[in-house]
Write a structure and sequence with these properties.
- There is one protein chain.
- This protein is of the alpha/beta class and about 230 residues long.
- Helices cover about 40% and strands about 25% of the residues.
- It folds into two domains: about 120 residues, Periplasmic binding protein-like II (D-Maltodextrin-Binding Protein, domain 2); about 110 residues, D-Maltodextrin-Binding Protein, domain 2, CATH 3.40.190.10.
- A six-stranded mixed sheet has the order 2-1-3-10-4-11, with helices on both faces. Strands 7-6-8-5-9 form a five-stranded mixed sheet.
Length: about 230
């Protein structure tokens, strides 16, 4: 039995886990997957960690292409992901569909959770949102950063406070039980991210990695990607 090693952006965790279940059942091989902020995953690969397949934002995959760390012919887009707002399930849903309402509800929030902007795409988007709304200094002491959106959403699901809000990528909100998806950020604040996968140049299991990648990007798997929050151009 071989082991396929995957490093993945947290935004792809839910769909990766679906693919892993079928892959292990069909092939008899095992998958070891780690999930986190894209910057952290890229750093782990660059630091020499064993990895056969890596899933990051498209820009970071291109950075790896430029230094020969992934197989260029294997590079495949998974889909595009927007950023949204979440609250704990069972609590009132704030209005977030326009600038004024979103700003007011962010200012009213007691806690705002999101991925760490130092390493995570969604965290950078959230901080840019706060700056554009002119509230960055007002909410600074109420923001809590997590290694990725999945961790932020699990904290939110387990919380018990009032007026707590989470902002991260839609694919890190929709699969998490115990949180409610309020809606996407208004279009003027969206910075949709394309997620891309590639077989690494040092892969010990390149054929298994290619098989996993085919399953993840197959037309038959697109309904699962859509359900998880991925978007595709018409």
């Amino acid at each position: 039995m071989a082991v396929l090693r995957v490093l993945s952006a947290g935004a792809a965790q839910a769909v990766c886990e679906e693919v892993i279940a079928g892959f292990e059942r069909d092939t008899g091989h095992r998958v070891e997957a780690a999930y986190g902020a894209v910057g952290a995953m890229k750093a782990r690969l660059a630091g020499g960690e064993a990895c056969d397949l890596i899933i990051l934002s498209a820009q970071l995959i291109q950075d790896l292409v430029s230094v020969g760390m992934v197989v260029i012919s294997s590079v495949s887009d998974i889909g595009k992901v927007g950023t949204g707002v979440a609250v704990r399930a069972g609590t009132p849903l704030p209005e977030v569909r326009n600038r004024e309402a979103l700003r007011a509800n962010i200012l009213a929030a007691k806690v705002i959770v999101c991925p760490d902007p130092a390493t995570a795409t969604a965290g950078k988007i959230v901080m840019r949102l706060m700056e554009r709304l002119g509230v960055a200094s007002q909410v600074e002491d109420r923001m809590q950063f997590f290694p990725n959106g999945n961790a932020a959403m699990h904290w939110l699901a387990a919380s018990s406070g009032h007026f707590e809000m989470g902002i991260t990528q839609n694919t890190e909100i929709l699969p998490v039980p115990g949180v409610a998806y309020v809606g996407p950020l208004p279009e003027e604040f969206q910075m949709k991210t394309v997620y891309t996968a590639a077989v690494t140049a040092r892969a010990e299991q390149p054929q298994l990695a290619a098989d996993f990648l085919r399953r993840l990007t197959a037309p038959a798997f697109r309904p699962q990607l859509l359900a998880a929050g991925y978007e595709f151009d018409a």
